[in-house]
Design goal:
By secondary structure, the protein is of the alpha+beta class. It has 9 helices and 8 strands. The two termini are 40 Å apart.
């Protein structure tokens, strides 16, 4: 028909396909919902280009990269704040199980969550390989992160930072006594019956065969096309995931989580957190 929504969806489909034909992306999946009802769900292009092109499907699994920050790490912290385990203004020195350097002791949790804690954006820890004697690379990286001088006084600026979210993963572990993937599954994925979003350890089994994943790039450091294994080098270096990267998922699984947040924000449900907690985090 000629209803505006129908025309809009037709235009959206053409727009997606044009992105493929113009080489902006090799392929992708877009799911759009309105008031909790999916109104558009389409896959375009290819999930791999080598050794031969393979098409994207609606259930293709993507490396969600920095969506790990809001979809897993932040959700876990939202749960811990909601339950009263931690508070947004609580200083870092009370959140970690080790002595915190003086310049970082008073950083409040909310500053880490909003990328204004003073940490630099990124550092190639994977290139400065840990000494052979180090068996726990994640612990080694965490010590490096704590020891690096801040780039600016906390709360005086805003600078997007992987390092801050590496620290937040540590906070979740310390305060819950549970690894991030386990906390995420126990409190969210399990109760929601969502299976197509997950963390993967580099030495652990994959829930799907490699062909189900979208490839990310031919990595010169690892000398292979990354497909079904985390692309982010620092996350790979510490075992496959961290607070800043490592989550994989489908479009439908991502939608399940963002719709959960939408429902709580709007007060349609209050079983995972109090709506006010979600509103606080959104602001």
């Amino acid at each position: 028909g000629n209803r505006p929504v129908d025309n809009g969806i037709h235009n959206l489909s053409a727009f997606l396909k044009r992105g493929v034909s113009e080489g902006i992306y090799p392929g992708g999946v877009l799911l759009v919902a309105h008031r909790g009802i999916p109104v558009f769900f389409e896959a375009v292009g290819h999930r791999t280009l080598t050794p031969r092109p393979r098409p994207v499907h609606q259930d293709t699994v993507f490396d969600l990269a920095s969506l790990t920050k809001p979809l897993a790490t932040t959700l876990a912290l939202m749960k811990l704040v909601d339950s009263g385990n931690i508070a947004l203004d609580q200083p870092l020195q009370t959140l970690l199980p080790v002595p915190v350097p003086e310049d970082k002791q008073e950083i409040p949790l909310r500053a880490l969550l909003s990328h204004c804690a003073g940490f630099e954006p990124w550092r190639p820890f994977y290139r400065n390989a840990a000494p052979p004697s180090v068996t726990d690379k994640k612990a080694w990286v965490r010590k490096q992160v704590l020891d690096i001088p801040l780039q600016y006084p906390p709360l005086s600026a805003s600078l997007y930072s992987d390092l801050g979210f590496m620290v937040l993963e540590w906070v979740i572990e310390a305060r819950s006594g549970t690894l991030l993937p386990d906390f995420f599954h126990d409190h969210f994925l399990g109760p929601l019956s969502v299976e197509d979003i997950f963390f993967r350890h580099i030495h652990g089994p994959s829930p799907f065969e490699a062909a189900r994943f979208a490839a990310t790039e031919e990595c010169p450091w690892r000398n292979r096309v990354m497909q079904g294994m985390v692309h982010d080098e620092n996350a790979y270096f510490v075992g496959g995931y961290s607070g800043h990267a490592g989550l994989f998922g489908t479009a439908e699984a991502v939608y399940a989580l963002v719709n959960l947040l939408r429902q709580h924000y709007g007060g349609e449900r209050d079983d995972f957190f109090a709506p006010r907690t979600v509103k606080t985090f959104f602001s």
